[in-house]
Each structure stands twice: as structure tokens, then as C-alpha cells.
Amino acid sequence: VHPNVSQGCQGGCATCSDYNGCLSCKPRLFFVLERIGMKQIGVCLSSCPSGYYGTRYPDINKCAKCKADCDTCFTRNFCTKCKSGFYLYSGKCLEKCPDGLEANNHTMECTSIVHCEASEWSPWSPCTKKGKTCGFKRGTEVRVREIVQHPSAKGNPCPATSESRKCIVQRKRCQKEGKGKKNRDEKRKKSNKDESKETRQESKGRAARRQNREQRENNNKTQPKKRKAPNKEQDLAPVDTAH
């Protein structure tokens, strides 16, 4: 071992020096050179930092730099995230997305173009005019549909979600609301009046029956009891004069 090389290192180093830091790493750790000013220091890490990808060899595991336009990568030729100003597509960082794709500024990726999709039309509504369905001959009917898929930035825009057309109906008169309400009120009052009349008649009948019953009871109490008439046959019986 070189005199400047030490084996009693810290921070995951297997061998190190005072000037260059780590020279080799413990098993499964990655060796990477970090620049500090004009000097490069070797360090040992459990995973490679941003802008680097790891490669494993029998004697050493190293961190190598990604391409200049890559922020993170899986290998040198496969990016997983691009630097600002580039869009990720199939592991590559592009300034402009290919034809048939559009740039997503939120994820900074090239994505498929999404067109608008609408549901089927609903049935036509009843023929109306000024919110009414009577009192006219010509009116309007409406049908609607819903948006089930909103478009992306370059997708086809959504169509209209409602349609209207003229319609003809058999003309009929509208029942006046005031008249109908008046009739309903009169019927309700009449019904309440009949019910009240029947109730009063029933009350009068019960009171009369109670009064008659009480009168009979009072008469029975005040009238004297009748004496039993004598038996005429006993009064006319013959008198025994034999003695």
C-alpha cells in the first residue's frame, strides 16, 4: 500500500488519501468524482446523484454523467427527465415534439393529441314557447348532449352541446291560474263548511238525546208510585151467616 493511501477511511471508502479523498468504495457503493474548485474528490454513495447513472463492474461500481440535455437518466442513451427547455420522448430529450404529438408544459413530455368527444343527443324536449306548453301554435323544442372527453391543446375543439328547432303543436287554451285557484279554494271552503255542518248536527243530536234521557230520569224520580187496585172478586165474596 502506498504511504499516502489509508485503509482506515470513513464515509464508505475502502481506501482513501488525504488529497484525493476516496480511491475505492466498499461493496455495493458507487464511486463518483466531485469537483470542488479546481480539485476533484472521490466519494462513495449508495446511489448516483442527479445527472449521473450507475454502472457496476466486478472490481468497482461507478457513476457516469448523463448527456448534457438530460437531468436524470437510466443509461447514457436513455433519459428519464430532461433539463429545462427540452421535452422527454422515448428516453430522448427534444427541443420540439414529433408530428402527431404535442408538448405538455406541465410534465415536460411529448404526449398524444387528445380530441374532444361528446355523448349522443338526448331526445327532443316538449314544444314550448316562453316557458309554456299551451296557448300557442308554433314553439321551440331543444335537445342537449354532454362532453365526455375534453381536448388537449392541439386537439379538435368541442362541438355545440345544445340544438333547437321550430315546432308546431295543436293549439289549446291554457287554464287560467287565478280561476283554477279560485275554484279550488271554493271547493275547499264548501267541503270544510259541509264537514262543520255535519259536525254541528251530530253535536245537536247527541245533546237532544242526552236531554231527553235526563228528563225521563227526573220524571221517574218525582212521580208518586200508584197503589195496587183491590181485587173485586175478594170484596164480593159471600159472608158466612151460619153462626
TrEMBL record:
GO cellular component: extracellular region
Sequence ranges assigned to domain R-spondin Fu-CRD in this UniProt record: 11-110
Keywords: Disulfide bond, Glycoprotein, Heparin-binding, Repeat, Secreted, Sensory transduction, Signal, Wnt signaling pathway
Annotated region described as Disordered, given as residue ranges: 169-243
Gene3D superfamilies the UniProt entry points to: Hormone Receptor, Insulin-like Growth Factor Receptor 1, Chain A, domain 2, Thrombospondin type-1 (TSP1) repeat
Signal peptide: none
Sequence ranges of Basic and acidic residues compositional bias: 175-219
GO molecular function terms listed in the Swiss-Prot or TrEMBL record: heparin binding; signaling receptor binding
Superkingdom: Eukaryota
Single Gene Ontology BP annotation: positive regulation of non-canonical Wnt signaling pathway
Major subcellular location class: secreted
Family: Belongs to the R-spondin family.
Its biological purpose: Activator of the canonical Wnt signaling pathway by acting as a ligand for LGR4-6 receptors, which acts as a key regulator of angiogenesis. Upon binding to LGR4-6 (LGR4, LGR5 or LGR6), LGR4-6 associate with phosphorylated LRP6 and frizzled receptors that are activated by extracellular Wnt receptors, triggering the canonical Wnt signaling pathway to increase expression of target genes. Also regulates the canonical Wnt/beta-catenin-dependent pathway and non-canonical Wnt signaling by acting as an inhibitor of ZNRF3, an important regulator of the Wnt signaling pathway.
Protein's name in the database: R-spondin-3
Species lineage: Eukaryota, Metazoa, Chordata, Craniata, Vertebrata
Gene: Rspo3
